[in-house]
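Kindly review both lines to help learners:
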Amino acid sequence: MTWQLNFSALWPYWPELLSGLLVTCQLTVLATLGGIAIGILGAALRSGRPSLPGRLWGVYVEAIRNTPFVVQLFFIVFGLPGLGLKLTAGQAALLAMLINLGAYSTEIIRAGIQVTPKGQWEAARVLGLTRTQTFLRVILPPALQRIYPALVSQCIIVMLGSSVVSQVSYEELTFAANLIQSRTFLSFEVYLVTTLCYLALSILMRQLLLLAGRRFLGSARA
């Protein structure tokens, strides 16, 4: 019995695979930018004086970090409609990724802020900077530089986790791969190509984030 790979049979399906890859890229870009912004806001709330918003944000962080991403996605897709909030598969996928990355990036960024010497806060106060100005101009940039490698890794993890959204019929890369496999029955070939796509996307994403880190933060490693 001989077994031969048949990648040529996948060629007619390249538009579906490319479309899924583009959707994954779009999700990743929006989730990365939005998730980091949410993380910065959360880190600011949790790094200041104890307050009700900070405590509530802490509850959100712990809830997300201690539950599976797929459960969070299903809750948004199937649970929220029970409260009268119905989202499309794309909106639900993006919201789930934003919420997930926002929680993890909050703690990563907060870790960088916590090791900031108190003298920097005091020096900024002496210079007459407001607390917001101190946070954005004095505290946040070096904090991001310190935790940048961990933040990059978390963004890539969220990108890879986007494959789960195929479970709610959102037509991203994994959904396209499953569809092609169901039509061709070439499981090995289809998922090998899909694996290589995710690998290439991860490497590209890491390099782009490294470039952005060097450009805006002076961070050279991740």
